[in-house]
Amino acid sequence: MPRRRTSSSSSSTGNSTGNSSAPRNRTPQPVRIRRRSFGDFVKAFFAFVALLVLVVGVPGALAMFIGWPLPNGAPSLDWLQNEITVTTFLHILTVIVWLAWAQFTACVLVEVKAAMSGVGVPGRVPGAGASQLLARQLVAALLLVGATAASLTPGLSQLGHSIEGNQKPSVAAAQQTPGLFAQQQEQAAGTAAALAEQASHAAAQADADGTAKHADTKYYRIQPPEGRHHDSLWEIAQRHLGDGRRYKEIYQLNKDRVQPDGSKLSEASLIRPGWIMEMPGDAHGGELVEMPDAAAPDGAHASNASQQVQQQIHDYAKSGDHAQGSGGEQAQGSGGEGAAHVSVPSQRPAGDAGGGQQHAGSTQGSSSSDSFGLPEALLGAPLLAAGLLLALGRRRRQSLWQSAFGAVGGRRGMEPPTPTGDAADAQDALLVGADPEGVRLLDRSLRGLSAQLAAESRALPTVYAAWLTNGDLHLQLAQPAGKPPAPWQLGQDQTFWMLSRTDGERYEDVDTAAPYPGLVSLGTMDDSRLLLNLESVPGIVSLSGREADRAAVFASVAAELATNGWSDRMTITLVGFGEDLTPLAPNRLRHLDGIDDLIETMEAETRQRRGALGAAGHHSVLTGRTGPAQHTRWAPHLVLLAATPSAEDAVKLAELASGAGHLGIGYLVGTETGELPGAAWEMEITGEGKLLAPLLGLELDAQMLPSAQQRAVVDLFVEADPERDPQGPTTTPPFLVDISEQGRPAVYARLVGPYEIIGLDTPDGERSALLHEALALLLLHREGVHPRVLSSALWPRGVTEDVRDSLLDRLRAWLGADPDGTPRLTADSTGRLVLAKSVVSDLDVLRSLYHEATQGKGVDSRAVRGRLLTDALVLVRGPLLADRPEGRYRWLTHEIIDAQLPLLVADIGLALSAFHLEKNRAEKAIEALNAALNSAPGDERLWNELLRATHATGDTARLQSVAADLINRSGARGLPPRTEALLDELLPTWRNGVAAVG
C-alpha cells in the first residue's frame, strides 16, 4: 500500500550490456521562458539592495565607524586586570557582528553556488538555520530575473554533459504483483540491462506528430525497491532537479497519463516500479532518458532493448497531451491484470481456512436493542480490546501487590473500585470484544517465523502489513523474499506469506524478539482485518479528515500500540492529542508539547540510531532482531502527530522520515488538506467512519476510539493506578453477607477449592457445565454481568442470540425464586444480570468474615476477631475452582481473582498469626501461617512471619529447617532483600549453611 516513497538511498543500478558508443540524440527542448512581471523586478531589486547592505555595507560600516576590535598585539596578564569600559563592550559586540556577517556571507555563497550550478541541494552552513533561510530567499529573488538562460531554460544546461553521464544504467521495469500496495516486483533475469538501453531505444516508432513534439523530452523509469529503499517523486526531484519540493512539477507532467501497466498517476503520492515519468527539461543526472530522434537509423537505438520496452515508452510519449480518451478509461475500469488495484488476500492456505475465530463479529451480530449502550468502537476492535484488557489486569494486579505490603487491615483493601457509568460500559465492551486467543496466535506465529528464519540464517523480510482473515494470517512483504519456512506458504504471489489458523496453533512460545512490533490495526474490509506496519513505512503515513475523526483514529492506534501483545518494548511519542493516554502505558507513551520539541527530539533519536546500527554492523533493525544479536531487541520508536504541521515543519519531518524505515522509526501525521511532503502513504478518514486510500483501492471500516470511549478507558486505568491515593480509605467488598445464623442462604456455592452447589438440583447433564460456569461468573461479579459479557465468556467464538437467550431462560429456571416469589436472577436498570442476596458463595462469606474481623465487630472484641478469622481460614480448601474442566472458564484470564484470593488468604493468615502471637501462642500462629501458605505459597509476608513465629518458639533447629526450606524454594532468584535482613537478625549463621550447601 505504499503511496509516495521517501527512502533516502540512491536508486538501484546495473551494468549496461548495450554498446556505449551507439549514437544518441541530445537535441534540446525548445526554450520556454516565463515572461517576467514588474513585481519580479521589484523583488529582485530589493533583494539586490539587501544583499549589498548585508554583505558589503555591514563590514564597511564596521571598518569605518568601529575599526579593528581585536588587540593589535598579544595580551599580557595585566590586560585581565584592566577596567571594563564601554569601548570594551563595543569591541565584544563588534566581534559578534563580524562572526554573524561571516556566517551569513558563507550562506550567500553556498546558495549562489547551488542556484548557478543547478545540481543538488544547497549544503548546510553549521548553526545557520535562519541566516541560511534568509540568504536562500534573497538569492532566489535576485536570480529570478538575473540568472542566465543556461541555468533557467529547460534542456540547455544539459548540453555540456557527456554522453556517458546520461547513460548510467538503472533497473528495468518489473512485473506487477497484485494485492495490497499493488507493487510491481523486479524480474530476476535481464532487468538490469532493460532500462539502461532506454537512452538509445525509446519510442523509435513514434508517429510524426508525437516525434516532433517529444523528440527532445527526458524520461525516468521508476526503480524497483532495493532493500528498504523505495523510489519516490520527492527523491527523484531531489536527485534530478536539485530540490525535492519540485516533485509537483513531475506530477503535473504525468498526471492521469496511462502507464505501461494500464493504471494512472492520479495523485502525487503513489508511484510504482516500472512506471515512466516525463521530466522537466532542466532535469539532469545519469539515470534520465532522452527521447531519441525518429530520423536516427534503426541500428542507432536497437541495441539489446526489447520491443516491449520500446513500445512502452513510445505509447507513453504519445500520451503527452494527456488526451487519454476511452482507452485510458477502459484501462482504469477494466480491473484486469495490471490494474492498480489493492485487494484483500484472495488465496488461503490449505487446512482449516474458514475455522478462524469470529469473536468480535459474533458480538456485533446482536441487534442494536440488545447493546444496552455498549460502545461499538470497542466491540469491533478485538485486538485493541484484548490489549487494553490485558494491560488493565496487569495494572490492577500491580495495585494489589503494592497494597499487600501495607499494614494489615489499614490499607485500601483487596477490591479495586467498581466502574460505573461510561467506564462500566467500556469495561463490558472490552470483555465482549476482546480476542485474546487471536492476539496469542498472532504473537506466537510471528515469533515462530522469526525463530525459524534465524535458524536458517535468513533475514527477516520487510513486512508492510498483515491481514487477519477468518483466523488465517497473511503477511504482505515489501518485495519477494523466497520460499517461507514451513508451515508458512506462498500466497497469491511472491509477496504474500500465509499461515493457516490450524498451523499457527502448533506454534509454542519461543524466546525471541518480537519481529514486527509496529503492526497496528487500521480497520476491516469484509471479513479481513488490516494491520499496517508503521515501523516499515518508507516515509510518512498521512491521515486527513475532520479533526475529531482523525483524533479517534490516532487514539485507537496509540492505545493498541501501547498495549498490544505482539511486541516487547516500544516508545510511542504523541503530539497534539486532546486526551492524555499516558495512564495506559506510562513506560511506553510520552507526550510532547509541540512540533518543535518533536523535531528536536527525533533529530537526536535519528542520529543516535544511525550510529548504533553502524556500530553494531546492522543494515536495519530487522537484522538486529534475529540471530545472535537479537538480545539487542531494537525496539521501535513510533511518532503520532495529530496536529497539522506547518509547511516548513512538514519538510523537516519528511527529511527525518525519508531514511527512518530501516531505523525502526515510523511517523503517522495528521493533515487538514491531504497534501503532505514526504508522505509515502496517504489516507483519509470520513465522517461515516470509512478509512479511504483511493489510489490503493482500500476502503476500510476504520478502527476508531472516539473521545467519549477514550475518556472511559483512561478512567479505568486511572482508577487502577497503584500510586493513586495509596493512603486512602479501605474499600468494602462489593457484596457482604449476613454471617449470623439468621443469614443462612437459599443457594450456597463453594468456589474456593472444588466446585460444589448446595440448595439446587443437578441440571441436565448436557447443559450442566454451561449452567455451572454461568453461575460462577455471576457469583464473582455481584455488581452485575452484561448479557453480552456472559455470552462471550461462555462462547468465546461467538453465539447467536436465540442460543444465548435460551441459556438465560434455563439459568433462571434452575435458580428458581425466593419464598416471596422474587426471581433469583434478575436484570437491573442497565440491563445487567444480578443474583439475589439469597444466592451466595464461600468467597462472599470469606470476604465478609475478614471484613467483619478487621473493620467490623472484631475491631472492638478480641474474641470475636479470633473466631471470625479462624472461621475464614477454615473455608479455604484450595485454589479457585480447583476441579474446573480443561478448556472452560477461559474468561478467568481477564479476572484478577487469581491474584485477589491468595492475597486475601495471606491477609487472613497474617491477621490470625498476629492474634495468637499477642498471647505468645507461637504454635497456633505457626499453624495459621502454614494453612495460609497452602493457598499462597509465594507470599513473602507469610514466610517472614513464619520465621518470626518459629523464632518465638526458641527452637533453633526448627528455625534452621524453615530457613533451609525457604532458601530451597527461592531457587536461583535468591531470597528477597527483606527476608535476608530478617534472617540476619533471627539466625545470623544462616549464610554459613547456604555456603556449605553450595
Question: In words, what does this structure look like?
Answer:
It is built from 33 helices and 24 strands. Strand 8 and strand 9 (496-499) form a beta hairpin. The chain is globular. The strands form five sheets. A 14-stranded mixed beta sheet has the order 8-9-7-6-11-10-19-18-17-12-16-15-13-14. The two termini are 60 Å apart. With 998 residues, it is α+β, with helices and mostly antiparallel strands.
Low-confidence stretches: 1-34, 147-215, 292-305, 322-343, 347-371, 407-413
| Average residue-wise pLDDT | 75
- Return the structural class: alpha+beta
Silhouette:
globular
Oligomer type: single chain
- Helical fraction equals 40-55%
Rg, rounded, reads: 37 Å
SS elements, strand count: 24
Beta-strand level of the residues, as a percent range? 5-15%
Question: What is the CA–CA distance across the termini?
Answer: 60 Å
- Largest sheet composition: 14 strands, mixed
Number of helices: 33
Biggest β-sheet: strands ordered side by side in the sheet: 8-9-7-6-11-10-19-18-17-12-16-15-13-14
